[in-house]
Amino acid sequence: MSEPSQRQDRPHLSAGRSWAPLIDAVTAILDEGADPHSPNTPLNVADVARRAGVSRPTFYKYFRDVPTLVRAAALQRMEATFERVPTVELGDTWTVFARDTFQTLLTDLAAHRRFYLSAIALNPADVASDFVRYISHRLLAYSPLGPVIHRRKGPDTAAERAEFLAAGTVWLVQQWLAASADPLAEVPDMVDRLSALLLSSSGATEQEIAAVRSASPATTTVATHPGTTPAGASPERIA
């Protein structure tokens, strides 16, 4: 993720060299298990700036407050994780897509559980919405379920349906991270659970669900949409 040119809620533009130390400082603090609800946690502006080796005015040059900084740090780590998700190949089924995508994402989330749970606690609406946006985009643009989501008729749009599925995914994963005694060991089970839940909630027909589970193509007619299966192709395969 690039750096911001000025203080803003969602920094993306390039900026000075003091931006990265602030991101690194708050990331390290949250990785160390800082309790965002404790008054003794070094998560005020002065402590974060001191850890980063910058001044308070420098902090406010880039970020409105600590939650805004936390969101930027979470977004940077999130983007790095999504960049490691394996590329979808021609003919990949939903089973392959879900396994590769969620294995990568959930492993990173479990490995950095302290960071992500604290980030959500400090900035719940923005951090969660960033995850929803990433997952919904991937479901629509890269997933074998994209054509199924697009094909459904109703007052809601395909983007709204994908966001609904992604929001449920984010909520479920957050609950799992908070409750699990050993999330890394449970990643394979969570991959299977999310794969099954998204498939059954996507609007796919029984025939399509059975075809995906057996890793064999199902014949169906779907509309052509950018980044999804062309008309007449199987919804469990990527064009």
Helix % is 55-70%
Order of helices and strands: HHHHHHHHHHH
- What value does the average pLDDT take? 79
User: What sort of overall outline do the alpha carbons produce when their principal axes are compared?
Assistant: elongated
DSSP strand tally: 0
Number of domains: 2
Straight-line distance between termini: 29 Å
Decide which structural class fits the backbone. mainly alpha
Count of individual helical segments:
11
Query: Main sheet?
Result: none
| CA-based gyration radius | 20 Å
Catalogue the unreliable spans. Answer: 1-14, 215-239
- Our estimate of the beta-strand percent is under 5%
Describe the structure.
With 239 residues, the protein is mostly helical. It has two domains: 51 residues, Arc Repressor Mutant, subunit A (Orthogonal Bundle); 130 residues, no CATH class. The chain contains eleven helices and no strands. Helix 7 packs across helix 9.
Chain-wise SSE layout:
Layout: H1 19-31, H2 45-52, H3 56-62, H4 66-83, H5 94-111, H6 113-122, H7 124-141, H8 146-151, H9 158-179, H10 183-201, H11 206-213
Helix pairs in contact: 1-2, 1-4, 1-6, 4-6, 4-7, 5-10, 6-7, 7-9, 9-10
How would you concisely characterize the structure shown here?
It comes from Citricoccus zhacaiensis. Helix 1 (19-31) crosses helix 2 (45-52). This protein has helices at residues 19-31, 45-52, 56-62, 66-83, 94-111, 113-122, 124-141, 146-151, 158-179, 183-201, 206-213.
